[in-house]
Structures are given as C-alpha cells and as structure tokens.
Amino acid sequence: ASPLGSRAKMRICADGGANRIFDEMSQMTNDLDRNRYIPEIVEGDMDSIRPEVKRFYSSQGSKISDKSHNQETTDLHKCISSIRHRTPDHEKANLCVLVTGALGGRFDHEAANINVLYVFSDMRIVLLSDDCLIQLLPKTHHHEIYIESSVEGPHCGIFPIGAPSTSTTTTGLKWNLSDAEMRFGSMISTSNIVDSDKVTVQSDADLLWTISLRNLT
Predict the structure, then answer these.
(1) N or C: which end of the chain has fewer CB within 10 A?
(2) What percent of the chain has pLDDT over 70?
(3) How many of the other CB atoms lie within 10 Å of CB of 44?
(4) Closest by alpha carbon to 136, among 118, 154, 152?
C-alpha cells in the first residue's frame, strides 16, 4: 500500500491486486492505517482473489464486481472501464489514473497493461513500478511534461510501439530529438537524461514515455 491510495478519490483493485493489499494491510498495527486502504470496488474475473480476502473486503463494504463472464478483456481493462463509467463527464478532462503493480512479473501481463494505455488513449493513465513510470503520449497533442526532480529521473526513454514515428522533436533532454525517425529495428531513445524541469514532445506517432523513479526509502 502507498500514500497514493489514501489520497485517491476512488480506489479500485483488480482481484489479484486485492490479495497484495490485504497481505500488506495485515502487517499494519494501526487500525486507521488499515482502513485507509479499503477499496471501494474489487473488479475482475475473480480467478485470483483468495476466498478469505473476498470475504473480508465484502464485509468492509467494498463492492465485489464479478466480471467472470467477460474473458475478452484483462482485469486492468475492466478496472479502467469502471473508472471511466463512474467519473462524471465534467471531471473526465482532469482525471488521472495511477496504476500500481502493473509492471514487472510475466511479460505478457506487462504487455497487456501497456496495451491498455493505447485502448484508453483519451485518458491519462500512469503505470507505476518501484523503479519507473510509463505513460502514453498520444500524437494528437503537443506534450509538456513537468519533472518532479525530487522523485523522478534522471533517466528516461521515449519510443513508439505499434507504429513508427517519422518525425519526433523534443526539448529538455540531454540528447534531444529533432525531426527524428524512430522505429523498432532502428533508432529508439533509451537511457536518455532529463536536463530541465520541463520536457516537451511533439510527434506524428503515439509514443511511450518512461522515467526512472528515485528510491525514497
């Protein structure tokens, strides 16, 4: 569990993620801290959640949203769909979804979670691990990324997945791109360095942006 969870306006767990939160909560000695991480919704096909975890969250008022009838989408896809459905239209423009536990582990799971960024490209979704964050930079926008240097950087990367870029331009990086072509099998920008508190990106293709996170423990 992280401080992000206690400050969120809505907390949704995928069914397997509920196990992880439950196990971390069991190590807390303060009832107030434990109650802070009760999700409003546990969403998914319910193939991973342990019975005692399901019973506990149900008893605490969490809605158990069983989507076992839908095997065509991942649990993260189901969670993001739920968030979109429950967010009023006037709040959608400022919505930011932070996803923990989406990176690492099995590569097919990780790739599916990255695919969710593309499926919901009109939403701001950030995938977080202990080491980095990943988000999509849609080609429809000129992007200004403000760097929180106390927790982010300095290493970063930017690259296209799904379609090559014939023109990408950046500012604020140690090795900036100027009308550059990027594609897998050729050049992509990895192990770059943020060199400013603001990075700008303009591209003719959807890009993934990733930046390292500092270990604050």
Answers:
(1) C
(2) 92
(3) 27
(4) 118
Q: In sequence order, what are the residues at sequence separation of 6 or more whose Cβ sits closer than 8 angstroms to the Cβ of residue 176?
A: 169, 170
Distance from C-alpha of 31 to C-alpha of 1, rounded to nearest angstrom: 14
Rounded Cα distance between 203 and 178, Å, is: 10
Judge whether residue 107 has pLDDT over 70: yes
Strand 143-146 vs strand 198-203: parallel, antiparallel, or unpaired?
A: antiparallel
Q: For 75, left (φ over 0), alpha (ψ -120 to 50), or beta?
A: alpha
pTM of the model: 0.85
Residue position matching structure tokens 């897998």: 184
Domains and CATH numbers, the chain: 1-93 (3.40.50.10240), 130-217 (2.60.120.320)
